[in-house]
Amino acid sequence: MSEDAPETGPGDPERDRAARLLQDHFAQGRLGGGEFSSRLERVYKAASLRDLEAAVADLPSSPAPPEPADRPAPPVPGGPGMLRDPALLIPWGLWLGVNTLCFTIWLILFLTGQGDGYPWFLWVLGPWGIVMVFITLGLAAVHRGGGGAARG
Questions:
Q1: What are the pLDDT digits (tens) for 99-109?
Q2: DUF1707 domain: from which residue to which, for each copy (predicted)?
């Protein structure tokens, strides 16, 4: 190729790389909204590689990695945090609500003389409650780290 050959336009990978670089710098706070928009417009309107490079020339080639966020301390195994776990609160709340409704219906029927007094609500309360107790104990074991896996 000769020195006088016309410069070719940038391809999509080059434009995408430059746009990604601008996005990274914008996310890091090094570019304002207006400057980001105008540079991004220049990147996508660039007719040559030189125009494309001019849009990102004064930026470092790779932005600094984001600083790690402070992670909250893990909950104490078996502590009160397990009792607030949605995996337990939601099913126990449903169990309580459904059984309260069943008992209320039974009580209304019993007090008005419409029912025969048989405590049928126990057939909902009992088996479901037993299953919930086993689920709670299993989750407690997992929270304590005794998930049943062999330790080596």
A1: 999 999 999 99
A2: 11-60
Residue 62 lies in a domain: no
Asked, for residue 66, whether it belongs to a domain, the answer is no
Domain range for 52: 12-56
Read off the pLDDT of residues 34-82 as tens digits, 9 standing for 90 and up: 888 888 888 888 888 888 888 888 877 765 555 555 666 655 554 556 6
Q: Is 76 helix (H, G, I), strand (E, B) or coil?
A: coil
Residue 147, helix vs strand vs coil: coil
Please give the model's pTM, rounded to 2 decimal places: 0.43
Q: In 32-85, where does DSSP find H-type helix?
A: 33-45, 49-56
Residue 5 falls inside a structural domain:
no
- In the chain, what are the helix, strand and coil shares in percent, each to the nearest 5? 60, 0, 40
Decide if 89 is inside a domain. yes
